[in-house]
Structure formats: structure tokens, C-alpha cells
Design a protein that fits this description.
Shape: globular
Distance between the termini: 15 Å
Structural class: mainly alpha
Number of strands: 0
Strand content: under 5%
Largest sheet: none
Amino acid sequence: MAVKKTQLYSSLWAGCDELRGGMDASQYKDYVLTLLFLKYVSDKYAGKPNPLIIVPQGAAFSDLVKLKGDKEIGDKINKVIDNLAAENDLKGVIDIADFNDEDKLGKGKARKWLTASPGWSVFSRALI
């Protein structure tokens, strides 16, 4: 079923707003852009021959979705992103956001977004 552009924008906005919680926008962008980048490269390059970006085993967006509800989700998300960064010489570029940082993500809305909310479904749709 095709999704209208306005529905996609609305869903993305709602999911991103829930993740942001009380976080400052200058920090928040690191989290959202990292997730969007990982989603994009997973959809575009995972399993393809001669990809521009290599998505190693265990470092695709689908691997993040499998972590939903995991009590150590923040640390495991960091490991998935670190794996992708190391494989593509992107250390210090896409691994800036710490998904295990309770000072930024807290234990409230943003943490719930990572572990249980429908926020994942927003990013789970194909973006390309």
C-alpha cells in the first residue's frame, strides 16, 4: 500500500518529536540523522554487489528493529552503528550520538521510544 508524502512527513515528525523529548535540537539532530542514515544505507546497499557503502552483517537497520524492547538497547545500537562506521571508515562521523546516554535520552519518553513505542515503525518504512 502506497503511503502519501504528507502521511510520511507527519509520521516522521511525530516519531522524531517523541524521541527528542527535552533534548536540545543541536544534540537531537545527531540521533535522528544517524538513524535516518542507517535506514537509508540499509535499504539502498545491504546485500548489493559493489555497494558504495558496505552494510556488514549485523549492522543493518533491521538489526536495530530487532532490539526493540531490549533492556540494553542503547549499548547495542551503539555497537551496530560502530560496526557500520568501522567498515566504511566513518568513525567520528556517524557514531557521534550515544544511544546509551541517559543524560541526553533520559529514562522517560526518549528511552521509551527506543525500547517500546511505535517510534520504530516510523523509521521502519522504506524511505527510498
